[in-house]
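Moderator note: this is an archived Q&A kept for reference. The question asked for a predicted structure of one protein chain; the sequence and the answer are reproduced below.
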Amino acid sequence: MGNSASSKDSLTSEMIQKRYKNYQIEQSMSINNESFNYIDPNAFKSTRLLQNLDLSKNCIKSIHGMSFAYLDFLKVLNLSHNQLTTIYFDIFIQQVVLQELDMSSNQIKEIEPKAFDKTLCLETLKLNKNQLKSFSSDKVFKSLINLKHLDLSENEFASIDSRLLAKQSKLSHFSAAQNMLTSIDSKLFSSTKSLVDINLSQNQIKSIDSSSLKQLNCLETLILNNNQLNSIDARLFRDLVNLKHLDLSFNQIELNANQSDLFVQNKLLTHLNMSNNKISA
């Protein structure tokens, strides 16, 4: 759990009361561009009606398990652009109605296994621009059954466990762009039939199994540019009947005469980018 700190390094209830005259009935607060490193456990004790809290662009290094304990009605929480390194299991215990959580642009390296167990209503989770290499448990998102938007881009993932998205049947937007992925597990998207947008650009992906995108009937946008793909299985896009935008540019793809019907099932495809590959006329 988070560390304790002196009052001069902490966001305190006194600071909040000076800034917001009607702090007891405020439903939205923004506290940005300050130098505090920690959040006092009682900082929000008297602001129980808060629904939207923006603490982005501060210097927060750690969050105590009680820091948000009084915010039972919080729906939107922005902690982006801070200096967090770990998401502890007890930070969001009381956030049972939280819908949007932004923790992008921190220095997060670890997420404890039960960190999101109580955030059952979460729909948007932004973890992009951190230092994540892996998750300590493949069940870290198991309680996020209502998740629709997940951003893992600009981290350091070399692989993603096939079971990571097993409970995300409502997921519509997924990004793992700008990581170090070399392949995509064939079962990663097996439970995410509602996906509309997948971005896996700027990785090191060399091949994609033909079953990886199976039954993704809702998918409209697939971004795979700037990888190391050298071939495309003829069956890869077969189930993507609603695909409209496909970017395969800046790979090493070579197509042969037998692949002239590669996109025959993609009758709604209007934007196809295959520039900067090894395709000859």
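Archived answer notes: The mean pLDDT is 94.
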